[in-house]
Amino acid sequence: MGERTEQAITLSLPSSMQHVYLLTAVVTEILKETDFDEDTQERINLAAIEAGTNAIENDDREGLGEQITFQLMLTENELSLSTLEESEALKHKETETAQVIMLSLPSSMQHVYLLDVVVSEVLKEVGFTEETQEQINLAAIEAGTNAIKHGNKEDPRKRATIQFILDDDKLTIVIQDEGEGFTRQEVADPLDPENLLKSSGRGLFLMEACMDAVTYEANGTIIKMVKYKTELEAQ
User: Fold this and answer.
1) Where, residue-wise, is CATH 3.30.565.10 in the chain?
2) Alpha-carbon span 9 to 103, nearest angstrom
3) What is the pTM of this model?
4) Distance between CA atoms of residues 60 and 116, nearest Å
5) Pairing of strands 159-166, 99-106
6) What phi and psi, each to the nearest 5 degrees, are found at residue 4?
7) pLDDT in tens, the chain (235 residues)
């Protein structure tokens, strides 16, 4: 499984009981990838829920727009859960009312399924139509995969960080990697006839087609994607 620190999965949530379900979903999915028997998985899951609940209930910042960050450490025969003192999750937050959910992963394709779990759970709570949810999911998975595979070159010492920023009128997803970056203008247009057989650029094209706005910052190591709610969805 590599060094212990390389398997640290970080989940940062608003310090509110309503978000404990996200911790539960992540722990449940991680346990599916282990060799623990069903009874042991159930006990670990219950313990994780209890630990997460206690951490939030004992956090005197609950309800004040603050974050609580959980670190899940996975080894071949152990899954441990701890809380971290500080979080970078509010770095891209633009409004006081926004809520931020952050997932930080080692750069291994085996962890992409956790991003799928988190984005699917987040989308259940934000009121988008089913079609819009599918578009956001596709864009988020593509961006996360690009960060791990192309940005960080699947180096487990580097991390891919995905933030979901929930506002009343929009969802912003910020994906950051620790790679060398790229220039968007230099990526081939997949719709150009001479590029039809090339794979490069298709992921960015998909992201830009699915989201309302996509911007590239810090030499392409930060991608910010926005999906606005329609008037009906925002009600």
Assistant:
1) 90-235
2) 7
3) 0.86
4) 31
5) antiparallel
6) -60, -40
7) 334 344 799 999 988 877 888 998 999 998 888 888 899 889 988 888 888 888 878 866 545 567 889 999 877 677 888 888 655 555 676 677 789 999 999 999 988 999 999 999 999 888 899 999 999 999 999 999 999 999 999 998 999 999 999 999 999 999 999 999 887 766 655 555 554 445 555 788 889 999 999 999 999 899 999 999 986 676 6
Class of domain 90-235: alpha beta
DSSP-assigned letter for residue 51: H
Q: Number of helices and strands (H, E) in the chain?
A: 6, 8
**Token digits for 122?**
């987040």
Query: What does the block give as tokens for 2?
Result: 């590599």
Detail the DSSP E strand segments found in the chain: 8-14, 67-75, 78-84, 99-106, 159-166, 170-176, 213-217, 222-228
d(CA 76, CA 60): 35
Q: Which amino acid is at 118?
A: V
